[in-house]
Every structure is written in structure tokens, then in C-alpha cells.
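Quick review question:
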């Protein structure tokens, strides 16, 4: 199995920045597409960003495009989410996810059901 642990959440003023980290276990981490999702109280979990195993291709939700950046360091088994220009509507629990694949994929995965492994989540609160 793969275990994912998020960190870096907290309270920040609107317009500020945070960087989330997701540390992964497993020898095959470098083969897995990775994603970030978020869930606000009373709402469904929604897609934020995803990155291919190579780190060269990324895709973002329209709501965060231009403000958030996903990246990965396969040597460190870690994926990151740099969040800039934060807004109160970004307030949510942020989850890291990994999709199990046996071969490389050319697809972007943006659905909750696409992913097989999930972290515990980290709270991000943006004050106005």
C-alpha cells in the first residue's frame, strides 16, 4: 500500500500564501499520478490540481488556475501545492491523493473516484 501524509496547512490572511506538502511511502511512488483535492464544510470534495509521474504535465481547476502550483520531487517522494493569492473561498480541508497505475498514463485524473490512496487532510483557513 501507499501512505500519504499532508502538512503545511494553517490560518492565513486573504492574499497570503501557503505551501502544502504530501510525503508518500512506497517504491513505486514515482510511477503514480498525484492529485490535490479540497472539501469545505457541507460541500463535496472537489478537484484542485494533478500532476503526471514525470512532473512535466499539470492540470488545474479553473478556480485556482494562475494562483496554485503543483509540483513533485520524486527523489524525496513528495508532492507540493504552492498556494498564492489565497481567498476566503479557498478555505477547506486539503487532501493529497495517488492513483495506482501499472504503466505510464497520458491522461489527467480529476475525479475523486479516480484515486486509490488518500492522505488524512490538512486544514487551510483563509480569513478576510
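Suggested answer, residue by residue:
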Amino acid at each position: 500500500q501507499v501512505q500519504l501524509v499532508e502538512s503545511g496547512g494553517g490560518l492565513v490572511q486573504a492574499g497570503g500564501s501557503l505551501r502544502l506538502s504530501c510525503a508518500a511511502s512506497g517504491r513505486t511512488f514515482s510511477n503514480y499520478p498525484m492529485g490535490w483535492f479540497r472539501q469545505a464544510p457541507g460541500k463535496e470534495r472537489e478537484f484542485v490540481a494533478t500532476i503526471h509521474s514525470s512532473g512535466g504535465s499539470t492540470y488545474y481547476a479553473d478556480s485556482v488556475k494562475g494562483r496554485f502550483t503543483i509540483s513533485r520531487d520524486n527523489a524525496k517522494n513528495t508532492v507540493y501545492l504552492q498556494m498564492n493569492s489565497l481567498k476566503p473561498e479557498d478555505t477547506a480541508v486539503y487532501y493529497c491523493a495517488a492513483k495506482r497505475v501499472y504503466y505510464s498514463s497520458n491522461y489527467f485524473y480529476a475525479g475523486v473516484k479516480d484515486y486509490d490512496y488518500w492522505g488524512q487532510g490538512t486544514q487551510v483557513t483563509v480569513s478576510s
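Why it works: The two ends are 40 Å apart (CA to CA). The mean pLDDT is 93.
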